[in-house]
Design a protein that fits this description.
The chain is an alpha/beta fold and 300 residues long. Helix content is 52%, strand content 12%. It has 2 domains: 162 residues, 3-Layer(aba) Sandwich (Rossmann fold); 120 residues, no CATH class. It has an 8-stranded mixed sheet with strand order 3-2-1-4-5-6-7-8, sandwiched between helices. Helix 8 crosses helix 9, helix 12 packs parallel to helix 14 and helix 13 packs antiparallel against helix 14. The protein is elongated. The chain starts with 7 loop residues before the first strand and ends in a 10-residue tail after the last helix. InterPro entries: 6-PGluconate_DH-like_C_sf, DUF2520, NAD(P)-bd_dom_sf, OxRdtase/DH_put_Rossmann_dom, TM1727-like_C_sf.
Length: 300
């Protein structure tokens, strides 16, 4: 006999909530409705999925076996408290949030009623595209007691993902890693594209030119790891080329990008020095150069 899937309510009709609601509904989880702070966002998702919607989270949550709170981090606790105050939770219910940075503390109001609380954070980047897909193989950071963790693990399997547990004390480091790999990658590409301003490319054209390079690099990293995938002048110990880069940024008065280049360069030296064939002399020369403004001593 196939176990009955729990009915589902999604609170928060933004990027993450929209994707999870659609995917779980498609996999047989009865979606009783969606709740959101504004009528516009609640109606947009509810009408698209043809389910009830409301700005009253308790009205939707009270009807579901599983409530997934997909609000911004700062709103998780007040939203949960508001639903609890209106008797939207009940003992034996499951209440999850999708934050990567938060522990289970913001769900305390639901836990006090007797709900099983947990978290389910997809390690993925979400945009405003209503048709965004959730790639198979996406990792999910899960947390919770025995009952909640069991259900979270089953949801991850349904979503064709990979689940792993992040201890409460490590949530900050975990989410910092996610931000660096996703948000700061966007910042880095913005920086690189702007450096191509003088090469006859618009910012959009520059991004298109950089995309194959980025894809090739990510493919190499996924196959070989970061160390073996590292290429370029620092990996070769080529201080002369690094100096030319720094001098060009200095000459253009591009101080912010020069500082970023130097910081990333120093970190890259730490990766390079662990690879075969990278000499201590090259390491020392690069560190000295990257800690300077890029000019030769006799030019000062």
């Amino acid at each position: 006999m196939v176990a009955k899937k729990p009915s589902l309510a999604v609170i928060g009709a933004g990027r993450v909530g929209s994707v999870l609601a659609a995917y779980l509904m498609d996999r047989g989880y009865p979606l009783v409705g969606v709740g959101s702070r504004t009528e516009q966002s609640a109606a947009r998702l509810g009408n698209r999925l043809k389910v009830p919607w409301s700005t009253n989270g308790a009205e939707i949550a009270s009807k579901a076996d599983l409530v997934i709170v997909c609000t911004p981090d700062s709103q998780v606790e007040p939203v949960v408290q508001a639903i609890a105050a209106k008797r939207g939770f009940w003992a034996g219910q499951y209440v999850f949030h999708t934050s990567g940075a938060l522990s289970l503390t913001p769900l305390a109001a639901a836990a006090e009623i007797g709900a099983f609380t947990g978290s389910l954070h997809p390690l993925q980047s979400f945009t405003d595209d209503p048709e965004q897909e959730l790639p198979a193989g996406t990792y999910f950071a899960i947390d919770g007691g025995k009952e909640a963790a069991r259900l979270a693990a089953s949801l991850v399997i349904e979503l064709e993902g990979v689940g792993f547990t992040v201890p409460a004390g490590e949530r900050g480091r975990y989410h910092a890693a996610a931000c660096m790999a996703s948000n700061y990658l966007v910042s880095l590409l913005h920086c690189a594209a702007r450096l191509l301003d003088g090469c006859g490319l618009t910012e959009w054209e520059a991004l298109q030119a950089l995309a194959p390079l980025l894809k090739g690099t990510l493919d190499n990293v996924s196959r070989q790891g970061t160390g073996p995938a590292l290429t370029g002048p620092i990996r070769r110990g080529d201080a002369a080329t690094v100096r030319r880069h720094m001098e060009a940024l200095q000459a253009a008065g591009d101080i912010d990008r020069l500082l970023l280049y130097r910081a990333l360069g120093l970190y890259t030296v730490q990766i390079a020095e662990r690879q075969a064939g990278f000499s201590e002399d090259a390491r020392n020369e690069l560190i000295t150069l990257l800690n300077s403004n890029g000019r030769n001593e006799n030019e000062r």
